[in-house]
Amino acid sequence: MSPASRTAAEPEVAALLAGIAAGAAERERTDASPFGEVAVVARAGLGALSLPVDEGGRGASVREVLAFVVDLAEADPIVAHVLRTHYSQVIGFLRHPDRDVRRRWLDEIRAGKVFGNAISETGPAAAGGHEFDTRLEEVDGRLVLNGTKYYSTGTLYADWIAVAARVPEDRVATVMVPADRAGVDVVDDWDGMGQSRTGTGTTTFTDVAVEPRDVLGSRPRLEPRPPGDVAFLQLYLHALVAGILRSVATDAAGVVRARSRTFEHAPTPQAVDDPILHEVVGRLSATAWTAQAAVLTAADAIDAVMAAWAEGEPTEELLLAASLAHTSVKVHLDRVALDAATTLFDVGGASASSRARNLDRHWRNIRTITLHNPASYKAAAIGRHLVTGAPLPTNGYF
After folding, report:
1. Distance of alpha carbon 188 from alpha carbon 207, whole angstroms
2. Which of 188, 302, 343, 371 sits at 20 to 30 Å (Cα–Cα) from 121?
3. Residue ranges of the Acyl-CoA oxidase/dehydrogenase middle domain (predicted)?
């Protein structure tokens, strides 16, 4: 494992990542949930990376957070994906305008609490739209939450759930709900071929009591999300892919070193000396390096938006640059990453397809991540913007 971040280079963090990596392939083979591994990351304070140093964190930028996510995804992309909403929520808390509200939630982060999400809903409305059937209403003088959410990634492991709910005057509120509160039902029913233990299931809220102070605020239903939020969440997925690609390159080299025989017509009698296999491993390593570099470069564009937002000046030019950066990473990475995960098998014989080796997990995980939204639509939107000047979409999937 070659650390991408300063955090991973610290001996105690490197040991933590090595421990998570040691059982990752077996957990995926047996479909075991990494509850312990997620808890280890939280207890180590790594969920607080973005917090300022004087607030008990490391003052990490978006680039530094995503560099760590690449490392964590190399160790176990399931654990890294579980924490996607958590890291996004931390950024949101940091810029909350109310000092007391901010202090309360930063205390929870410092205590090692994990945040999940219940945002997405299914139905006839288009993905990325602004329709929500989940409601937060006042009933007999108290706030009550009712609704059903899907694709609640990470919520199975969470202490707190961030819920998007309709409120009066055509607004959407963000509501924080303890995962163990009466009426909250987190169902582990995600059956994807990859990322299978991320807890991406159904979450139902039935007459859930909500404290007024747990409502973070509301916005007009059709208003775009705050600058940088969507870009961070989307680029986070590509950081997962970059981490998986590092595992692909490492596993390819390991397969070649472990081969005890080769083909009679191979260029060398030992696979470990075969220049053709060397070339394949080299290309896979180059793909992994380039993916990581692309993710971190795009992260710089998001950091520029965050810095401008802090100064009250998130310009349209910066927002456009961040959107073009993270969407361009996806358009390119979706294809080369899947090709790399397939090419991995070219360095082994038929035994490389053994279920015991579980090398297909890389392809399955990458493919599942890429399906979050289609690269074809993103490429078309980029091209349309460049040719006609049409604005890029602003919904939560772009």
Report:
1. 21
2. 302
3. 133-208
Residue the block writes with tokens 């775009």? 224
Q: What's the one-letter identity of residue 336?
A: V
